[in-house]
Amino acid sequence: MKKKIALVTGGFTGESVVSLKSAAVVERTIDKSRYDLFKILVYPGDWYHEAADGQKVPVDLNDFSIQVEGKKITFDGVFNILHGSPGEDGKLAGYFDMLGIPYTTCDALTSAITMNKGYTKAIVQDIPELFVARSIQLFENKVENLEMIQKELRFPLFVKPNNGGSSIGMSKVKVPSELQEALDKAFAEDNQVLVEEFVSGREFSIGVYHAKGKTTVLPATEIISSKEFFDFEAKYSPGVTEEITPGRMSEEETERVKRIIERVYQKLNCKGAVRIDYFLEYETDKFYFIEINTVPGQTETSLISQQVRAIGMEVKDFYTELIEEMFTST
Q1: pLDDT in tens, 296-320
Q2: Residue 17 and which of 47, 143, 246, 286 are 20 to 30 A apart at CA?
Q3: Phi/psi of residue 280, each to 5°?
Q4: Residue 269 marked as a ligand binder
Q5: What sections of the sequence does the record tag as coiled-coil (predicted)?
Q6: Separation between Cα atoms, residue 105 and residue 164, nearest integer Å
Q7: pLDDT above 50: residue 39
Q8: Quick one: 78 and 28 in the same domain?
């Protein structure tokens, strides 16, 4: 008998647009011979399944079930493709944990911690061969911050919402006069903001997942952006960024990155597929951790999809491995 899988998408943030695009690809690609898929859209105060005739079928939040043609449907598991809150910050994971429904992504604690860039860096910074840029975590948009930042950090700087994604609200600040505007922009998105020193290096993004009893580090993608940095436009507008998969790394770099990525995945107790962004600094070739994304995009051109294809694997089979792994790890 086919397993019933809820494909959860939508969300409470600006990333919901990307989430819907990812969900459309998963819906089209997933192995229909193995799974009955039901797309569930999650918005503030409005959780529903869209029936074939376009009708909105509300979700019963008591047990995460729906009624289809007079029949109650409950789910064997959840394919979580909801970027941002509540799919990536642990809220949905906690809800599913209470209901005893397995899901494809990290657990509630890991999701909550990794959504916070500052906390994540504090946990991973003692991993051998891994470096983090000097930074300050801000909890209030106070005028005193300007002096403190200029005293403790060197320009240029990155200013970003601490819990955000898709580079929304992020700025590169080259001179002190640009700082307040960047802080205002970041604080408009989040009540915590991370200010960190700019690392000059080659930028990469790499997928890693656990299935069939082993952790697989996918080939890294090298990101060459025509923009100042890999911002929202660079991520989602065709032609703005060149993405090379596998990225150009020496054998030593490839092996070192693999070692570090496996340790990050293990130390943060990750599950399912995650994507980790990093720099290799120009002068030193040091690995600088940028951030981790625990619900990486699954659009046709997304980095994870490129990397899966680069190892000669069908994306459909990759999804099957993620789904089957959630049943073995519960």
Answers
A1: 999 878 899 999 999 999 999 999 9
A2: 246
A3: -110, 110
A4: no
A5: none
A6: 18
A7: yes
A8: yes
